[in-house]
Structure formats: C-alpha cells, structure tokens
Amino acid sequence: MPRYVLTGALALLFLAPLLWAGVASVSPQGGTAQAVGWGFGNYETLAGYQAGIVAFLWNSAVVSALTVVFTLVVSTLGGYAFAWFSFPGKNALFLTVLAILMVPYATLLLPLYVLLNGLGLSNSLLGVALVMTMFQLPFATFMMRISFEAVPRELVESAMVDGCTSFGALRRVLLPAVKPGLITVGMFAFLAAWNDFITPLVLISDTSKQTLPLAVASLRSQVMGVVDYGATEAGVVVLALPCVLVFLVLQRHYVAGFLSGALKG
Amino acid sequence: MAVSTPAPPEATPPAAARRLRRRRPARGQLLGWAYAAPTALFVLVLFVLPTLLVLRMSVSDWSLFAGDRGVNFPGNFTDAVGDRLFWPAVRFTLTYTAVTTVILIALALGLAVLVQESSRWTSVLRTSFLLPSALGLASASLLFYALYSPQASPVPGLLRLLGFDVGTISFLGTPTSALVSTVVLIVWRFAGFYMLLLLVGLQGIPNEVYEAARMDGARRWQIFWQITVPLLRSSLALCTILCVTGSLLAFDQFYILTKGGPDNSTITLVQLVYNTAFGGKNDLGRAAALSIIVLAALLVINVVQFRGLRGKED
Predict the structure, then answer these.
(1) At CA B97, angle to CA B93 and CA B103, rounded to 5?
(2) Rounded to a whole number, what is the largest CA-CA distance in chain B?
(3) How many CA atoms lie within 13 A of A258 on its CB side?
(4) For chain A, does the N or the C end have fewer beta carbons within 10 angstroms?
(5) At what angle do helices B29-43 and A53-84 cross, to 10 degrees?
(6) What's the sign of the alpha-carbon dihedral A193, A197, A200, A203?
(7) What span, in angstroms and rounded, lies between the C-alpha atoms of B204 and A130?
(8) Cα separations (Å) of B220 from A112, B171, B186?
(9) Contact A133/A72 with Cβ under 8 angstroms?
(10) B196:A258 CB<8 A
C-alpha cells in the first residue's frame, strides 16, 4: 500500500507543473500585464505580441504540416523501395539515412545555414520544413520499412496478378495495411516540428517568420529585462495543448512507435 | 520493369514459380530507385553535402556575412580550443552530463519498477509520467522558466504553507542552483521516456526467474540488485547512451533558462558553437571547427561506451 501512495504522489508531482501552467496562465500575477483579477488577460497580451500570435501559430502550423507531409511521402516511397525492391546502392543509401542519427544537430545546422542561403531558401518556412524532414528520415524510413516488410507478400502479388501496377498496389493494397506505421511517423514528425527550437532559431531571421516556440521564448527578453511571466505561461499552454491532445489520443501508437524505434538502438 | 503486364486470368502460377517470386520480389531495379529517389535527394542535398561542407568550413576563414575568405587551418581549431570559454564549457558539459545521466536513469528505473505490473491504475500512472515527454524541450524550459521566476514561482509560497521559512529562493541565481534547477527540469521532461524504455526490458525478463529466486528465499532488494539490474543491462545501456549523447548536446534548456549564466557558468559546448557562429563573433569557420571537435568527442565517447558495455556482457 505505501508503494501506491508513493507512486501516486510522484505522479501528481509530474502533473503539477502542467496544471500550474494552466492555472497561472489565467491568474493575476506580480510583474505581469495582468495584475488583478482572473481571466484571459495574459492570452490577450500574448495575442498582441509583435506580429501577433495568429501569425506565429500560422508559421508553426505551416512548418509542421509541410514537415508531416514531406516526411510521410518520402518515407512511404523510401520504405516501400527498401522493403520490396532490390537495387544497386540500396544498403548504402539505407545506412546513410541511419547515419543522420550520428551527426549532432548543431554540427549540421551551420552548413545547412550556408547551403540554404545558396539555394535561396534562407529565412523561409519551406527551408525549415525541409531540414526538419531530413532529421525525421532515420526514424520514419526505418519505421516504414518494417511496416512494409510486415505485409504478407501474397496480398500484393495477387493485386499485381489482377493487373495492378506497383504504384497501384502501393496505393490500394499496401497503404491501408501500413496505416499504423503512417500514423506513428506522422505523429512523431508533428511533435518534432511543432516543438523544434534550434532549427528555426538558426535558419529564421525575420521576426514575422518566427515559429511559436521562438516567439514565446522572445517574450523573456523584453524591454528593461521585465519579463511577462503570465504571457509566457499562456504561450506555454498554447504550445503544449496540441501536443498533449495528440499524445492522449494517439498514446498507444506513441508507445508502440517509440518501442520499435528504440529496439533498433 | 514490366510491372503492369497483366497475367493471363486463368494462370494460377505453379507452386514452384510462386515460391521463386516470393524470394525475389524485385520488380526491376529502376523502379526501386524511382521510389527511393526522394529519400536519396533529401539525404544527398541536406545531409551528405552539409557534412562535407562543415568539414570544408572548419578549415576555412568563413565569416557569417562575408563567406569563404580562404584557408585557415589549423587556425580555426587552435582558436576554438583557445577560446577562454572552451575549457569551462567542456567541464560544465561533462558535469551536467554525469549528473543528469545518473539521476535520470536511477529515477526512471525506480518508476519502471513501481509501475511494472499492468493494471488500469498503473496505466494511469504511466501516462502521468509520460505526459511531460509530449512537450517540446523548449516549451518545458519556458514552463520552468516561469516556475523558477522570483515573481511568479508558487514554490516559496507552497513551502511557507507547509511551515518552512525559506526566505527568498534563487533558482537560477548561482552556478550550483542553476545546474540543479536545470537537472530538475530535464528529469521531469525525460524520466517517463526512459521509464518506458526500461519497462520493455522489464517485460522481457521471464517470471520464472523471479519465482525461482523467491523460492530460494531472496529478499526484494536482493532480487532487484542481483536479478533485475543485471538482466536489464542492455536496456540500461541503451538509456545511458541516449542520455549521455543528448546531454552532451544540450542547448534549448540552457539557452532558455540561464542564457549561459550566471557568469558564463552554464555555457555548454553547443551553446558555444551557437555563440561563435551567430552570437556576435559571426565566425562560422571557428564554429565549424568547434562542432567537429564535439562530433569527434561524441564518437569517441560512444565507442568507449559500446566497448565497455559489450565487455561487461561477455
């Protein structure tokens, strides 16, 4: 019994910061714009910050959506190729994809900054999404490869016997079969892109193109060192809410995905 | 290549042919390459090319605004190591990594053992521990930034409510408290994540082993230290490697919580790379050299870890 009490108390301790952020974001606090009374004053401050929270939300949504779409398309086609076809250079390419895990983020971001400048993609949300997709590829390609390998060969062969092209088989027969893999990859790509901090920090220089984490972080460094903690908490809630919802809805996939991701290590 | 050749409808292939096809599902190499082409393009342009470029940059006098201004080797490397913050950053990064890894893995192991049995109650607990890992590290850091602020922090009030007279607590004001406060944030954010990895390992230990130990009269602590921990070695090794690598590359949490302060006491190596490249010096060449040093150190540390762990397993 004391064991359950201990574990329950620990669980509350883990939930407490999240609950506090929610409460603090609507409560009056010292040193914030919203000095008196409960309400959404902190959110109003946040909404009017710089280019406006709507713009930052939009930037984050664009980067996340592009990253999810790119990651899904590239890893589906790649996973299909790696699982079902043999072609020269296949293993070398797969190992190169996995090698992305070996090189630290910060090491790659310097040349990527130079490279994207050269490609005319500097300071652009598209450039950020492309870089984030690249960082997602090891997990996503690995995940889609196992998903495709788990599909019974007969299923696809009978489709091809019935006159399907390989792409037709992929679209009609294989995609439904690898849906759990697609959900996992999409969810991981979303969480990573929505939350990434250092990539847009390095690649984005226009305030108006900042993603939400950057904008909320910049609340800290306001004039005269006065930090609006209430607005910061409101920003944390706006940042965390989609992640917590996605996590709670797709928890099973999250756990399963990260286990198969972990097993490769 | 002839993928769409319709088979004669009546042709159910003989068993032997079908087996042959099952062994060789390849429908043409060109087609395989076509499907792999987007992956290849991404990897080539955004990974292979930048990796070569960072090597090139590390031996060049490369400024943020003026670009490549010729060779500067080994100048970038000697300048990087000669930076007055280099050794403090190395020392701090290693300290932070050691403290984080030990505390995080010990706590994650404790949590995993506590919620090991499957039941509705434990699954609620598991979710509570896992929920922080859905947050981004930057969001979590911002949350704790407010939680640690003198103006907004509820902690001193809570302590006073419990009867402790704490005066004023400075969470981020001294080098030691800044380190401790950051480790608390990281433990909160990642403990559930590592707990889950260790749970998989725990579920791989057959029940008979525990039963046999209990029959032999082993106590709970004995079972934990002599059975659970040794059999969990590969899961613990995975957690350790992930945690060490992640901590050596720490950035978000310090950039947001401490900005490297107080008095540059919490500058990590990646923060130094960032500052060298974008924080005023604008020296991409030296920053590239520094990140090559970090990359090399990381490779060495990982090889040593793998060796050590493999050696123990034999």
Answers:
(1) 145
(2) 88
(3) 23
(4) N
(5) 150
(6) negative
(7) 38
(8) 53, 38, 30
(9) no
(10) yes
State pTM to two decimals. Answer: 0.89
Report the C-alpha gap between A234 and A210 in whole angstroms: 17
Q: Is the CB of A88 inside 8 Å of chain B's CB atoms?
A: yes
Q: In terms of residues, how long is chain B?
A: 314
Do B113 and B228 form a contact (C-beta atoms < 8 A)? yes
Tokens standing for residue A90: 């296949």
pLDDT band, very low/low/confident/very high, at B108 (cuts 50, 70, 90): very high
The predicted pLDDT at position B139 comes to: 96
Q: Which residue of A has its CA nearest to B62?
A: A114
Residues 6+ apart with CB under 8 A from A97: A78, A137, A138, A141, A142, B39, B43
The span from the CA of B292 to the CA of B290, in Å, is 5
**Which two structure tokens, joined as six digits, stand for B235?**
């899961």
**Contact between A217 and A239 (Cβ < 8 Å):** no
Is some CB atom of chain B closer than 8 A to the CB atom of A90? yes
Return all residues near A37 (Cβ < 8 A) that are at least 6 apart: A28
Q: Which amino acid is at B310?
A: R
Structure tokens, A206: 């226009």
Shortest CA gap B176–chain A (Å)? 22
Structure tokens at A56: 């930052």
The Cα of A243 is separated from the nearest Cα of chain B by a number of Å equal to 6
Could you tell me if B1 and A132 are in contact, meaning their C-beta atoms sit under 8 angstroms apart? no
Q: Which pLDDT score, from 0 to 100, does residue A13 have?
A: 94
Least Cα distance to B153 among A264, A16, A189, A169 occurs for: A16
Three-state DSSP state, B127: helix
Q: For chain A, what is the mean pLDDT?
A: 88
Distance CA B304, CA A138 (A): 24
Phi–psi pair at B87, nearest 5 degrees: -65, -40
Position B15 pLDDT exceeds 90:
no
Residue with the two structure tokens 């969990």: B232
Place of tokens 């042919």: B17
Question: Does residue A30 have a pLDDT over 60?
Answer: no
